[in-house]
Amino acid sequence: MTGNGKTWPDPVEWTGKIYSAGWRESEGGTLQVIEPATGHALAEVGVASSVDVARAGARAAQAAGDWAAAAPSDRIDVLLRASSALREHSATFRDWIVRESAGVPAKGDYEITAALAQLTHAVGLASRPPGEVLTPQTPGGTSLAWRVPLGVVGVINPWNAPLLFAVRALAPALALGNTVLLKPDPLTPVSGGVLVARLFEDAGLPDGVLQVLPGGAETGQAVAADPHVAMVAFTGSAEVGRVVAGVAGEGLKRVALELGGKNSLVVLEDADVDAAALAGAVSTFGYQGQACVAAGRHLVHADLVEAYTDALVGHARTLRVGDPRVEGVSIGPIISERLATRIERIVDESVAGGARVLTGGRRDGLFYPPTVLDRVDRAMPAFTEEIFGPVAPVIPFHREAEAIEIANDTAYGLTAAVHSGSVQRATAVAEQLRTGMVHINDVSAKDAANAPFGGMGLSGNGSRIGGSASLEEFTQWRWLTAPGPV
Ligand code: NAD
Predict the structure, then answer these.
(1) Which of 141, 190, 250, 449 measures 20 to 30 Å from 99, CA to CA?
(2) Whose alpha carbon is nearest atom 14 of ligand 1?
(3) Residue 23 half-sphere exposure toward CB, CA atoms < 13 A
(4) 282 lines ligand 1 (CB under 6 A)
(5) Residue 145 has pLDDT above 90, yes or no
(6) Which atom of ligand 1 is nearest to the CA of 183?
(7) Which segments constitute the Aldehyde dehydrogenase domain (predicted)?
(8) Residues classed as catalytic
(9) Is the separation of the CB atoms in 396 and 269 below 8 Å?
């Protein structure tokens, strides 16, 4: 609600529409947003067809010159106003995140806090694209190099942190003078698209600088292929990331890929077992395990494995499963039948191969309970595949080197956590893990606006988002020379 008692944002403005220099009808029809916990229809948004995307690309390219030339203070003002609007409407954002993405309110609050941090950090980037004064090749001449915007950036996002993933890409991209085409996931187009567009509309962002184009694979392909798009920032699965990279590669565009993970939480024999099990529970069961940074393997020293597993099962059994809007519920539904079926297959095949279910393991529709598996071997899908559900495979080890070898036995390389009574020892182990991120005596699932987020191997293409990494991702060098002073 706004101060004058009206609903913010007014559904009449955006229902069935896309945001492309104002709210407008699309040529791609509409899509319905369904609440996973109840099956109720929540909203209807426009779907951007390839024609809509082409028009949006042309508008974004047209708006790019003025936006790149705007004074940093103008860009900063927009980011600060967007930040104030996000604070003002945080209850609306929380409610939509809870209903669309099926996370508990604390997950909504986390996204809002993290998105605010991204906006604040982007304010600092707006006046920062650095340059270098180089030694000229002609005496008395000038040689300068500095970072300039790329132009139009296409942002293609998944459903699991719709607000945060939108803001973490578009805030630095806009701050650094780019224009943005944002394609939210069709499961979360309101919290990952409509509301974001309304924030920046209220913040006074000029028309065409940010456009929101909901839709599925076809819309995403059109964004990646659009000739006006200079860079694609994709967050999602490795499978689709490969396709998007191929399409963008055809156009010789920059591509930043933030993909999946098969992340290990390693517990050495001198670890505080209760603290490690709590970190393990949070890392695997939080938001039903539907996070790229969730722990997908619990590697526990054989001396501790019984105590650790008991504690993990204890946590799993205290977590109430249900509609995330109901007080006391910690575990909402899985986002879609497709994903719930996939989790079920991974667990069932692993059990058929000899794994044992210590708790959970059977779903009720979309509701999959926190599950702990032991007797997991390396041939089982619970070991090899990203599960993206609340399932914790526990694997014992005897030697530190063995733990490192098991953790590195994956093509992914996103994040990890190492638990030990000695931070130095844990750090030495952490340094041998092939991941873009690693955390000592903590959860595997962390992010910070000032840190380079991203992974190695199948978890990305070496791109990072956040902190100074965003400065590199969303700008490029220009070199200028002159025979005299400029
Ligand atoms: P997905 O790859 O299926 O979809 C992601 C986005 O791509 C969606 O917007 C979708 O509509 C779009 N898309 C689908 N097919 C496309 C195509 N052919 N061309 C262009 N766009 C297309 O992702 P998902 O399975 O819904 O999300 C979960 C995956 O995302 C997991 O693997 C998870 O680990 C990963 N993820 C990674 C990060 C990260 O920051 N590294 C964050 C969140 C999720």
Answers:
(1) 449
(2) 217
(3) 19
(4) no
(5) yes
(6) 9
(7) 23-479
(8) 258, 292
(9) no
* Distance from C-alpha of 168 to C-alpha of 180, rounded to nearest angstrom: 12
Rounded to 5 degrees, what angle do the CA atoms 91, 92, 98 make?
Answer: 90
Sign of torsion, CA 157 161 162 164? negative
Closest residue by Cα to residue 220 from 206, 202, 200, 241: 241
CB count within 10 Å of CB 68 equals 16
Rounded Cα distance, 65 and 61, in Å: 8
Closest Cα to residue 429, out of 267, 261, 309, 262?
Answer: 267
Is the whole model's pTM more than 0.70, yes or no? yes
In sequence order, what are the residues at sequence separation of 6 or more whose Cβ sits closer than 8 angstroms to the Cβ of residue 52?
A: 18, 20, 26, 27, 28, 213
Token digits of residue 146 = 């500095």
pLDDT, tens only, 260-292: 999 999 999 999 999 999 999 999 999 999 999
Q: What are phi and psi of 43, to 5 degrees?
A: -170, 170
Residue 292: CB within 6 Å of ligand 1?
yes
Dihedral of CA 217/167/413/248: which sign? positive
- Domain annotation for the chain: domains and CATH numbers: 11-259+460-480 (3.40.605.10), 263-449 (3.40.309.10)
Torsion angle (degrees, nearest 10) of CA 231, 117, 174, 456: -10
- Rounded CA gap, 282 and 58, in Å? 44
pLDDT digits (tens, 9 = 90+) for 225-272: 999 999 999 999 999 999 999 999 999 999 999 999 999 999 999 999
Tens-place pLDDT, residues 292-333: 999 999 999 999 999 999 999 999 999 999 999 999 999 999
Could you tell me if 189 and 159 are in contact, meaning their C-beta atoms sit under 8 angstroms apart? no
